[in-house]
Amino acid sequence: MLKHFIGLQWKSFFRSATFKTEIWFKILMALGALYFIVVFLGMGVGAFFLIKEMEIGDPLRVVNQFMIYYLAFDLVFRYMLQKMPVTNIKPLLYLPISKSKVVNFSLGKTVISFFNLAHAFFFIPFSIVLLVEGYPPLQVVGWHLALMAIIYCNNFINVMVNNQNVVFYVIAALFIVAGASQYYQWFDITIYTGPIFDFFYDIPWTAIIPWLILIGLYYGAFAYFKKHMYLDGGLAKKQTEAKTENLEWLDRFGNLGTFLKNDIKLIKRNKRSRSAVIAGAFFIFYGLLFFTGALEVYDGPFWKIFAGIFVTGGFLFSFGQYVPSWDSSYYPLMMSQNIKYREYLSSKWYLVIIATIISTILATFYIYFGWEAYAAVLVGGIYNIGINSYLVLWGGAYVKTPIDLTSNKKAFGDKQAFNAKTLLLTLPKLVLPIGIYAIGHFLINPMAGYIFVAVFGLLGFVFKNKVFTMIEGIYKKEKYKTLLAYKQK
Amino acid sequence: MITVHNLTKTYGENTVLNIDRLEIPKGQSFGLVGNNGAGKTTLFSLLLDLIQPSSGHIINKDVQVDQSEDWKPFTSAFIDETFLIGYLTPEEYFYFIGELRGRNKADVDALLSNFEDFFHDEILGQKKYLRDLSKGNQKKVGIVASFIGNPEVVILDEPFANLDPTTQIRLKGIIKDLAAKDGVTVLVSSHDLIHVTEVCERIVVLNKGEIVKDIHTSAETMKELEAFFAG
């Protein structure tokens, strides 16, 4: 039986549409995975010595103190990215396989997920360093096993709370509050949680407690899934109550308003687009890394422009990048309805522009970090509106991966972001403005650099019609290929 | 209204459609039948410029469809669920199509009121998004949406499939009414010979991409078709 399951799994992995991508994308993905492994490894090996050097106490105790945040982040990441094991169960339901076996296999599959294994790259080297540094082996092993169990507890907690948005947001909010109050020294949650993890070290046999909890959680998840393995139960698609919205205030924009209305509904009502926009909103705070001098590597003058582009371009990069894939599930309708390509494109363009203007206004608080920071944000906004808004639409013509709006999975690490042509187009999006700025910065002064970038952005605005005609032509040329690609889900 | 000239569509070695000449006069109700893979959907997709012909072209009211977009204002279609926007409610979808075709809400509501029977209280005011409707109900929405804005050409691919018997009968009535209107050309494809012979004045049989029969519907049509498909 297990042989069959593994065989099915194998085929579903190697025959999936995403797997058959360009070879160099696979290389990129492997590099990405490698990067994370190296980061975790580096953390595992380096954390001990780093903490020691900072002289804030016994490294293990310090790690234990902040462990709660580590675990909280882990949970949040899992919630957002980890795939649920229920997929592909449907065809097995009526076959002569006991339900327990199916559930056991599905849950067992999550054990070897990357989200669990990645932690090994931190904990194993960290424990080894502890041993090498002369910590008592028995105690280190106890601690190690306890945390391993806790990581797996997270795994099954995630399985159970999945799709329970309320639970997730409450937990996330609690941790944000805890983190903020710790930062401002109102209340320190780690005083209470740190000792728990110390406990596993001080009295190693207590490591059995998290393992017992883990077994409990496994059976909880098992019972939950088994009970809900019906088409109208856990396997049913969630239906939300729909309400008709008019958004009549957009009617004054004519045909453009029609599309904008649709796009607003698209963003509001679909999980995938909603998360893209939320992710985009976080970009506004990205600049804090640069302007507060939090990271030394970001102190160079060009990085300010880089930050400006990102701060104001969150929506542009997270949503605009994937035009027209957002409409992939009904692209044939769009192509045969009474719609001119130009109207369709300009509605997307306006959406990006409006969002960029809003981000630029919201980012006004950067003025707190001095005029230069604010100038960088402002010219970044102008450049995004004048040049990058075209570039994302242009790149979109080559993006041919359909987006499944109702699912959040694959939201990150989607191959569409790594299409050769779109990748090439990111160069002018980021490198060009930095280059322009550098010319002004070195020839005259920083002010001139900013003015140069702004002028460049404004020039783009002037040529709108010309650029649009060109982009429209490319979209028309790519139309049939795009339609074909969207058909293959 | 519609003229097909030397139209072929090939994928690699495989010719899926090959029509020398086909003329569909204005106002005709035109039925397309054929087995799976006969080329029905390919022909309709070519009519809507969703795929490119390998050779030849289609003229829809003086507009060559793969050259200009000007056929769009007077042509509408429902091919499959990719013509529906899943995250809209049926009402929003109808209004959206209405706005694209220059019809305001009142116009759309007036049109929808004619289809109350057809909807059978399962479409409007259901507080459901289109993606959550059953296949049959989705189809009803798509079909009715294709009537919005008085199109001169209406293309329906397999409109009877997935519908319950009552709805099938009502749909036949609707299509007959539509075809009886002055100047509306209706193109319907179906696997169901009885339905097409009832609804269409003219029936064309496709087999492996070629026209093998072109019949003006009469009392004997059904027999003729059955004889053909029985092989």
UniProtKB/TrEMBL annotation, chain A:
<feature type="transmembrane region" description="Helical">
    <location>
        <begin position="166"/>
        <end position="185"/>
    </location>
</feature>
<feature type="transmembrane region" description="Helical">
    <location>
        <begin position="275"/>
        <end position="295"/>
    </location>
</feature>
<feature type="transmembrane region" description="Helical">
    <location>
        <begin position="63"/>
        <end position="81"/>
    </location>
</feature>
<feature type="transmembrane region" description="Helical">
    <location>
        <begin position="375"/>
        <end position="399"/>
    </location>
</feature>
<feature type="transmembrane region" description="Helical">
    <location>
        <begin position="23"/>
        <end position="51"/>
    </location>
</feature>
<feature type="transmembrane region" description="Helical">
    <location>
        <begin position="102"/>
        <end position="128"/>
    </location>
</feature>
<feature type="transmembrane region" description="Helical">
    <location>
        <begin position="420"/>
        <end position="444"/>
    </location>
</feature>
<dbReference type="Pfam" id="PF18940">
    <property type="entry name" value="DUF5687"/>
</dbReference>
<feature type="transmembrane region" description="Helical">
    <location>
        <begin position="140"/>
        <end position="159"/>
    </location>
</feature>
<dbReference type="InterPro" id="IPR043742">
    <property type="entry name" value="DUF5687"/>
</dbReference>
<keyword id="KW-0812">Transmembrane</keyword>
<protein>
    <recommendedName>
        <fullName>ABC transporter permease</fullName>
    </recommendedName>
</protein>
<feature type="transmembrane region" description="Helical">
    <location>
        <begin position="301"/>
        <end position="323"/>
    </location>
</feature>
<feature type="transmembrane region" description="Helical">
    <location>
        <begin position="349"/>
        <end position="369"/>
    </location>
</feature>
<keyword id="KW-0472">Membrane</keyword>
<keyword id="KW-1133">Transmembrane helix</keyword>
<feature type="transmembrane region" description="Helical">
    <location>
        <begin position="450"/>
        <end position="471"/>
    </location>
</feature>
<feature type="transmembrane region" description="Helical">
    <location>
        <begin position="205"/>
        <end position="225"/>
    </location>
</feature>
Automatic annotation (TrEMBL), chain B:
<feature type="domain" description="ABC transporter">
    <location>
        <begin position="2"/>
        <end position="227"/>
    </location>
</feature>
<dbReference type="InterPro" id="IPR003439">
    <property type="entry name" value="ABC_transporter-like_ATP-bd"/>
</dbReference>
<dbReference type="InterPro" id="IPR051782">
    <property type="entry name" value="ABC_Transporter_VariousFunc"/>
</dbReference>
<dbReference type="InterPro" id="IPR017871">
    <property type="entry name" value="ABC_transporter-like_CS"/>
</dbReference>
<dbReference type="InterPro" id="IPR003593">
    <property type="entry name" value="AAA+_ATPase"/>
</dbReference>
<dbReference type="InterPro" id="IPR027417">
    <property type="entry name" value="P-loop_NTPase"/>
</dbReference>
<dbReference type="GO" id="GO:0005524">
    <property type="term" value="F:ATP binding"/>
</dbReference>
<keyword id="KW-0067">ATP-binding</keyword>
<protein>
    <submittedName>
        <fullName>ABC transporter ATP-binding protein</fullName>
    </submittedName>
</protein>
<keyword id="KW-0813">Transport</keyword>
<keyword id="KW-0547">Nucleotide-binding</keyword>
<dbReference type="Pfam" id="PF00005">
    <property type="entry name" value="ABC_tran"/>
</dbReference>
